[in-house]
User: Which sequence fits this backbone?
């Protein structure tokens, strides 16, 4: 792939189905990659028969999307009102999708690059002005962009962070490149799904969407057996 960043931006725009995003070539590649993963959630939701809208932190529907450039919190209400997506599947409770927000378990705060969370849990977080807990999370995605291969240390940090959260909190580690050492590290960790080489047009991108679909299936099954995901 001669222009990986260009490919990410093209796929991001296509997956968002005509909704303009704020990502440009001026952004850091790792931030664009997180946007790409966010877009995979949106595209998968559409493929699964979901309806997608975008809201600001006041739950007001918006057309102009504003995403975080640095880690933040769901309940943040500062000068800029950041965007999240809301996914609707039949009679199931809606799911919100956030970029770069923190989740708390006991005394540990961990960042989620892409967080899928129960709307009720997200609203509770905003109302109480506190970080959400793992029990309300549908899926957390960790994205790593490294042109020459993700370092083993990144995999080790991820495994360590995940051990600070309960196993019931579904997660997925995704990177654009390949690394034997990082793969070995993640393979030895129990119940931590991962995908390497996830870039536009690859089979690994398809596998990432399959993981996301499984999270949707598990969530919708709790509310609406009649909705095919």
Assistant:
């Amino acid at each position: 792939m001669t222009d990986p960043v260009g490919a990410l931006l093209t796929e991001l725009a296509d997956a968002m189905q005509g909704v303009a995003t704020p990502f440009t070539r001026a952004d850091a590649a790792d931030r664009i990659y997180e946007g790409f993963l966010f877009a995979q959630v949106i595209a998968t939701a559409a493929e699964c028969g979901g309806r997608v809208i975008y809201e600001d932190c006041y739950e007001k529907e918006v057309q102009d999307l504003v995403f975080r450039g640095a880690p933040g919190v769901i309940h943040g209400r500062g000068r800029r009102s950041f965007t999240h997506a809301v996914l609707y599947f039949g009679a199931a409770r809606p799911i919100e999708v956030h970029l770069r927000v923190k989740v708390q378990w006991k005394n540990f705060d961990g960042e989620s690059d892409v967080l899928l969370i129960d709307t009720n849990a997200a609203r509770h977080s905003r109302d109480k002005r506190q970080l959400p807990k793992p029990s309300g999370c549908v899926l957390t995605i960790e994205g790593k962009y490294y042109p020459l291969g993700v370092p083993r240390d990144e995999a080790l940090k991820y495994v360590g962070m995940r051990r600070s959260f309960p196993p019931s909190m579904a997660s997925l580690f995704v990177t654009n490149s390949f690394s034997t050492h990082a793969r070995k590290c993640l393979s030895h960790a129990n119940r931590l799904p991962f995908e390497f080489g996830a870039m536009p047009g690859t089979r690994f991108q398809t596998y990432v969407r399959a993981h996301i679909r499984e999270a949707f299936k598990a969530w919708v099954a709790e509310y609406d057996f009649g909705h095919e995901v």
Observations:
- Residues 4-221 form one domain.
- Residues 15 and 39 are 6 Å apart (CA to CA).
